Amino acid sequence: MVHPQRGKRFMSCEHQRQRGAHRSGAGLEDPGCLACFSIGLALTMVTSGVIAALSVKHVSKRFSGFGEIVRKAPYVSGAVILVIGLYLGINGWLHLPIK
């Protein structure tokens, strides 16, 4: 297929899929798209960090036991992740085909 403006040959997305030439993540090869994605991700992470820091400061003024909860949070989070990992591992092991 010849591009009407450029006169060069190109393959449409449908032809690329049929020939197996379509790759996942192909849009992020454009430097402008990658830059916009990176800036958006950075702004989102910085904004959520600032909101979390301000929230902790605000809650610690109103609730005296908040420091104790915050000190135990990593252990609770680790235990939850461990339980989910064990569940997924055992469930995957039990669903393996036996030959």
What does this structure look like?
- The protein is mostly helical.
- It has a domain at 64-99.
- The chain has three helices and no strands.
- It has helices at 13-19, 31-62, 66-94.
- Keywords: Membrane, Transmembrane, Transmembrane helix.
Quick summary:
This protein has 99 residues and is mostly helical.
Descriptive terms for the model:
single chain; 99 residues; mainly alpha; 0% strand; membrane; transmembrane; transmembrane helix
Helices and strands in order:
Blueprint: H1 13-19, H2 31-62, H3 66-94
Number of β-strand runs: 0
Class derived from helix and strand content: mainly alpha
Radius of gyration: 25 Å
State the share of residues found in helices, binned by percent: 55-70%
Major beta sheet summary: none
- Compute the separation of the termini in Å: 49 Å
Shape type: flat
